[in-house]
Amino acid sequence: MLKLYNFPQSTCSQKVRLTLWEKGLEFLDRPLDSAKREHLTDWYLNLNPNGVVPTLLHDDAVIIDSSVIMEYLDEVFPANSLTPADPVMRAQMRKWMRYFEEVPTPAVRVPSFNQYLSKRFDKLSQEEFDNFVDKHPIRKQFYKKMRKEAGFDERETNAALDRLRQTVERMEKGLADSGGPWLMGDTLTLADYCIAPTLDRMNDLGLGDTWNDLPRVCEWIERVQSRPAYAKTFYKGTRLSEIYDGADYGTPANFATVTRD
Ligand SMILES: N[C@@H](CCC(=O)N[C@@H](CS)C(=O)NCC(=O)O)C(=O)O
Question: Is the CB of 56 within 6 Å of ligand 1?
Answer without folding.
Answer: no
